[in-house]
From TrEMBL:
It comes from the Bacteria. This is Carbohydrate ABC transporter permease. It is found in: Cell membrane. Residues 76-266 form the ABC transmembrane type-1 domain. It comes from Plantactinospora siamensis. Belongs to the binding-protein-dependent transport system permease family. It is a multi-pass membrane protein. The chain crosses the membrane at residues 16-37, 70-99, 111-134, 140-160, 187-212, 244-265. Keywords: Cell membrane, Membrane, Transmembrane, Transmembrane helix, Transport. Its main location: membrane. Pfam families: BPD_transp_1.
Length: 281
Protein backbone atom coordinates (compact mmCIF):
# COMPACT_ATOMS: atom_id res chain seq x y z
CA UNK A 1 0.00 0.00 0.00
CA UNK A 2 1.41 3.31 -1.03
CA UNK A 3 1.81 5.87 1.71
CA UNK A 4 0.39 9.32 1.39
CA UNK A 5 2.68 12.08 0.20
CA UNK A 6 3.94 14.22 3.05
CA UNK A 7 1.95 17.41 3.46
CA UNK A 8 3.18 20.79 4.54
CA UNK A 9 2.79 21.41 8.24
CA UNK A 10 1.92 24.83 9.67
CA UNK A 11 5.54 25.13 10.78
CA UNK A 12 6.92 24.49 7.28
CA UNK A 13 4.42 26.94 5.76
CA UNK A 14 5.59 29.62 8.19
CA UNK A 15 9.19 28.85 7.23
CA UNK A 16 8.42 29.25 3.53
CA UNK A 17 6.62 32.53 4.20
CA UNK A 18 9.54 33.81 6.25
CA UNK A 19 12.02 32.85 3.53
CA UNK A 20 9.82 34.51 0.90
CA UNK A 21 9.75 37.73 2.94
CA UNK A 22 13.53 37.63 3.34
CA UNK A 23 13.98 37.19 -0.41
CA UNK A 24 11.61 40.07 -1.17
CA UNK A 25 13.32 42.29 1.40
CA UNK A 26 16.75 41.45 -0.01
CA UNK A 27 15.75 41.89 -3.66
CA UNK A 28 13.78 45.12 -3.21
CA UNK A 29 16.85 47.46 -3.34
CA UNK A 30 17.81 45.97 -6.71
CA UNK A 31 14.24 46.36 -7.97
CA UNK A 32 14.01 49.95 -6.73
CA UNK A 33 17.37 50.70 -8.35
CA UNK A 34 15.87 49.50 -11.63
CA UNK A 35 12.76 51.63 -11.06
CA UNK A 36 14.81 54.81 -10.66
CA UNK A 37 17.10 53.82 -13.53
CA UNK A 38 14.05 53.72 -15.83
CA UNK A 39 12.44 56.91 -14.56
CA UNK A 40 12.88 60.66 -14.74
CA UNK A 41 14.23 62.95 -12.04
CA UNK A 42 10.74 63.47 -10.61
CA UNK A 43 10.52 59.82 -9.51
CA UNK A 44 12.77 60.50 -6.51
CA UNK A 45 10.55 63.28 -5.21
CA UNK A 46 7.23 61.46 -5.46
CA UNK A 47 5.19 60.74 -2.34
CA UNK A 48 4.69 57.84 -1.98
CA UNK A 49 7.90 56.73 -3.75
CA UNK A 50 7.68 55.32 -7.25
CA UNK A 51 7.54 51.52 -7.36
CA UNK A 52 6.65 51.02 -11.04
CA UNK A 53 9.40 51.12 -13.70
CA UNK A 54 9.32 53.97 -16.16
CA UNK A 55 10.18 54.14 -19.84
CA UNK A 56 13.40 56.18 -19.72
CA UNK A 57 15.89 53.35 -19.24
CA UNK A 58 17.61 53.59 -22.62
CA UNK A 59 17.61 57.38 -22.43
CA UNK A 60 19.39 57.25 -19.07
CA UNK A 61 21.80 54.60 -20.35
CA UNK A 62 22.67 56.75 -23.36
CA UNK A 63 23.53 59.61 -21.01
CA UNK A 64 25.67 57.31 -18.85
CA UNK A 65 27.66 55.89 -21.76
CA UNK A 66 28.17 59.27 -23.44
CA UNK A 67 29.23 61.30 -20.40
CA UNK A 68 32.66 62.87 -20.71
CA UNK A 69 35.46 61.91 -18.30
CA UNK A 70 33.54 58.84 -17.03
CA UNK A 71 34.50 56.14 -19.58
CA UNK A 72 31.71 53.86 -18.37
CA UNK A 73 31.85 51.40 -21.28
CA UNK A 74 35.61 51.06 -20.87
CA UNK A 75 35.18 50.59 -17.12
CA UNK A 76 32.97 47.54 -17.67
CA UNK A 77 35.60 46.00 -19.94
CA UNK A 78 38.34 46.83 -17.42
CA UNK A 79 36.37 45.21 -14.60
CA UNK A 80 35.84 42.12 -16.73
CA UNK A 81 39.57 41.90 -17.49
CA UNK A 82 40.62 42.44 -13.87
CA UNK A 83 38.03 40.07 -12.41
CA UNK A 84 38.78 37.31 -14.93
CA UNK A 85 42.56 37.49 -14.52
CA UNK A 86 42.35 37.62 -10.72
CA UNK A 87 39.88 34.73 -10.61
CA UNK A 88 41.99 32.48 -12.84
CA UNK A 89 45.12 33.35 -10.88
CA UNK A 90 43.40 32.68 -7.57
CA UNK A 91 42.14 29.29 -8.70
CA UNK A 92 45.58 28.20 -9.86
CA UNK A 93 47.82 29.56 -7.12
CA UNK A 94 45.47 28.91 -4.20
CA UNK A 95 44.70 25.35 -5.26
CA UNK A 96 48.40 24.67 -5.87
CA UNK A 97 49.41 26.12 -2.50
CA UNK A 98 46.51 24.34 -0.80
CA UNK A 99 47.68 21.05 -2.32
CA UNK A 100 51.22 21.67 -1.05
CA UNK A 101 50.06 22.45 2.49
CA UNK A 102 47.57 19.58 2.58
CA UNK A 103 49.46 16.69 1.00
CA UNK A 104 53.17 17.52 0.72
CA UNK A 105 55.47 17.13 3.68
CA UNK A 106 58.15 19.77 4.11
CA UNK A 107 59.87 21.41 7.05
CA UNK A 108 58.00 24.34 8.56
CA UNK A 109 54.74 23.70 6.73
CA UNK A 110 52.60 24.03 9.84
CA UNK A 111 54.33 27.23 10.95
CA UNK A 112 54.03 28.70 7.46
CA UNK A 113 50.33 27.78 7.29
CA UNK A 114 49.80 29.40 10.68
CA UNK A 115 51.47 32.57 9.41
CA UNK A 116 49.21 32.55 6.33
CA UNK A 117 46.11 32.23 8.53
CA UNK A 118 47.31 34.99 10.87
CA UNK A 119 47.54 37.41 7.95
CA UNK A 120 43.74 37.18 7.74
CA UNK A 121 43.56 39.07 11.04
CA UNK A 122 45.40 42.10 9.63
CA UNK A 123 43.02 44.75 8.19
CA UNK A 124 43.75 45.41 4.54
CA UNK A 125 43.60 49.16 5.20
CA UNK A 126 46.86 48.99 7.14
CA UNK A 127 48.84 48.06 4.05
CA UNK A 128 47.35 50.50 1.57
CA UNK A 129 50.02 53.19 1.98
CA UNK A 130 52.87 50.69 1.63
CA UNK A 131 51.12 49.04 -1.31
CA UNK A 132 50.65 52.38 -3.05
CA UNK A 133 54.36 53.16 -2.61
CA UNK A 134 55.36 49.75 -4.01
CA UNK A 135 53.08 50.15 -7.01
CA UNK A 136 54.54 53.61 -7.55
CA UNK A 137 58.10 52.26 -7.49
CA UNK A 138 57.09 49.72 -10.12
CA UNK A 139 55.40 52.41 -12.19
CA UNK A 140 52.06 50.63 -12.07
CA UNK A 141 49.87 53.21 -10.32
CA UNK A 142 47.14 54.35 -12.68
CA UNK A 143 47.14 51.06 -14.59
CA UNK A 144 45.18 47.83 -14.27
CA UNK A 145 48.37 46.02 -13.17
CA UNK A 146 48.16 47.82 -9.84
CA UNK A 147 44.68 46.39 -9.30
CA UNK A 148 45.51 42.87 -10.50
CA UNK A 149 48.90 42.19 -8.90
CA UNK A 150 47.97 42.50 -5.18
CA UNK A 151 45.03 40.10 -5.63
CA UNK A 152 46.66 37.25 -7.54
CA UNK A 153 46.55 35.05 -4.42
CA UNK A 154 44.97 35.47 -0.99
CA UNK A 155 45.38 33.83 2.39
CA UNK A 156 41.69 32.94 2.52
CA UNK A 157 41.90 31.13 -0.81
CA UNK A 158 44.95 29.12 0.27
CA UNK A 159 43.35 28.17 3.60
CA UNK A 160 40.02 27.25 1.98
CA UNK A 161 41.64 25.05 -0.66
CA UNK A 162 43.89 23.37 1.91
CA UNK A 163 40.94 22.44 4.10
CA UNK A 164 38.96 21.07 1.16
CA UNK A 165 41.88 19.08 -0.27
CA UNK A 166 42.60 17.54 3.13
CA UNK A 167 39.20 15.82 3.07
CA UNK A 168 38.53 15.45 -0.65
CA UNK A 169 41.81 13.82 -1.71
CA UNK A 170 42.83 10.66 0.21
CA UNK A 171 46.51 10.18 1.04
CA UNK A 172 46.30 6.71 -0.46
CA UNK A 173 45.38 8.20 -3.84
CA UNK A 174 48.45 10.43 -3.78
CA UNK A 175 50.72 7.54 -2.79
CA UNK A 176 49.25 5.36 -5.52
CA UNK A 177 49.98 8.06 -8.08
CA UNK A 178 53.55 8.36 -6.88
CA UNK A 179 54.04 4.61 -7.15
CA UNK A 180 52.91 4.87 -10.78
CA UNK A 181 55.66 7.41 -11.39
CA UNK A 182 53.54 10.58 -11.51
CA UNK A 183 55.29 13.86 -10.78
CA UNK A 184 53.95 16.35 -8.25
CA UNK A 185 52.44 18.55 -10.98
CA UNK A 186 50.89 15.49 -12.64
CA UNK A 187 49.31 14.53 -9.32
CA UNK A 188 48.00 18.05 -8.94
CA UNK A 189 46.56 18.21 -12.44
CA UNK A 190 45.22 14.66 -12.84
CA UNK A 191 44.12 13.75 -9.30
CA UNK A 192 43.62 16.90 -7.24
CA UNK A 193 41.91 19.21 -9.75
CA UNK A 194 39.08 16.75 -10.66
CA UNK A 195 38.41 16.08 -6.97
CA UNK A 196 38.11 19.75 -5.95
CA UNK A 197 36.00 21.14 -8.79
CA UNK A 198 33.10 22.12 -6.46
CA UNK A 199 35.53 24.06 -4.26
CA UNK A 200 37.08 25.72 -7.32
CA UNK A 201 33.60 26.79 -8.46
CA UNK A 202 32.85 28.34 -5.07
CA UNK A 203 36.19 30.12 -4.82
CA UNK A 204 35.96 31.32 -8.41
CA UNK A 205 32.49 32.80 -8.01
CA UNK A 206 33.31 34.48 -4.71
CA UNK A 207 36.56 35.88 -6.11
CA UNK A 208 34.96 37.22 -9.28
CA UNK A 209 32.17 38.95 -7.34
CA UNK A 210 34.55 40.40 -4.74
CA UNK A 211 36.97 41.67 -7.40
CA UNK A 212 34.19 43.17 -9.51
CA UNK A 213 32.78 44.99 -6.46
CA UNK A 214 36.15 46.15 -5.11
CA UNK A 215 36.14 49.91 -4.74
CA UNK A 216 38.67 51.21 -2.21
CA UNK A 217 41.96 50.12 -3.78
CA UNK A 218 40.95 50.77 -7.43
CA UNK A 219 39.76 54.25 -6.40
CA UNK A 220 43.14 54.99 -4.81
CA UNK A 221 45.44 53.61 -7.46
CA UNK A 222 43.32 54.52 -10.53
CA UNK A 223 42.42 58.02 -9.34
CA UNK A 224 42.44 60.34 -12.33
CA UNK A 225 43.49 57.64 -14.80
CA UNK A 226 41.81 56.67 -18.07
CA UNK A 227 41.46 53.05 -16.91
CA UNK A 228 38.71 53.03 -14.24
CA UNK A 229 36.87 49.95 -13.09
CA UNK A 230 33.08 49.89 -12.98
CA UNK A 231 32.85 50.82 -9.30
CA UNK A 232 35.18 53.80 -9.80
CA UNK A 233 33.13 54.89 -12.82
CA UNK A 234 29.94 54.75 -10.76
CA UNK A 235 31.57 56.93 -8.10
CA UNK A 236 32.47 59.39 -10.89
CA UNK A 237 28.81 59.43 -11.91
CA UNK A 238 27.90 60.37 -8.34
CA UNK A 239 30.51 63.12 -8.05
CA UNK A 240 29.90 66.79 -8.61
CA UNK A 241 27.79 69.48 -6.99
CA UNK A 242 24.56 68.09 -8.38
CA UNK A 243 24.07 64.33 -8.56
CA UNK A 244 21.64 62.95 -11.14
CA UNK A 245 20.59 59.76 -9.40
CA UNK A 246 18.79 58.25 -12.36
CA UNK A 247 22.16 58.18 -14.15
CA UNK A 248 23.96 56.77 -11.13
CA UNK A 249 21.44 54.00 -10.59
CA UNK A 250 21.25 53.22 -14.30
CA UNK A 251 25.01 52.70 -14.30
CA UNK A 252 24.86 50.72 -11.06
CA UNK A 253 22.13 48.47 -12.48
CA UNK A 254 24.14 47.73 -15.63
CA UNK A 255 27.23 47.01 -13.50
CA UNK A 256 25.18 44.67 -11.31
CA UNK A 257 23.69 42.64 -14.17
CA UNK A 258 26.83 40.52 -14.86
CA UNK A 259 26.97 39.51 -11.20
CA UNK A 260 23.28 38.59 -11.12
CA UNK A 261 23.70 36.45 -14.23
CA UNK A 262 26.84 34.81 -12.84
CA UNK A 263 25.26 34.05 -9.48
CA UNK A 264 22.13 32.77 -11.20
CA UNK A 265 24.20 30.36 -13.27
CA UNK A 266 26.62 29.32 -10.54
CA UNK A 267 24.46 29.62 -7.43
CA UNK A 268 23.92 25.87 -7.28
CA UNK A 269 27.65 25.31 -7.48
CA UNK A 270 28.16 27.50 -4.42
CA UNK A 271 25.57 25.55 -2.43
CA UNK A 272 26.95 22.23 -3.69
CA UNK A 273 30.53 23.15 -2.81
CA UNK A 274 29.60 24.35 0.66
CA UNK A 275 27.48 21.28 1.35
CA UNK A 276 30.15 18.88 0.13
CA UNK A 277 32.74 20.59 2.30
CA UNK A 278 30.42 20.38 5.30
CA UNK A 279 29.64 16.68 4.73
CA UNK A 280 33.30 15.77 4.22
CA UNK A 281 34.31 17.65 7.35
Amino acid sequence: MLGRAPQDTPGSIKTYLLLALIVLFSAFPIYWMFVIATSTDEALTKTPPAVVPGNQFFVNLHEVFTMQDVYFAASLINSLIVSSVVTLSMLFFCSLAGFAFAKLRFRGSNALMLFVVLTLTVPSQLGIVALYIVMGKLGWNGTLLAVIAPNLVTAFGVFYMRQFILNAVPDELIESGRMDGATTMRLYWSLVIPAIRPALAVLGLLTFVATWNDFQWPLITLNGSDFPTSMVAISDLASGNYVIYRRVLAGAFVATLPLLVLLGIGGRQIVRGIMEGAVKA
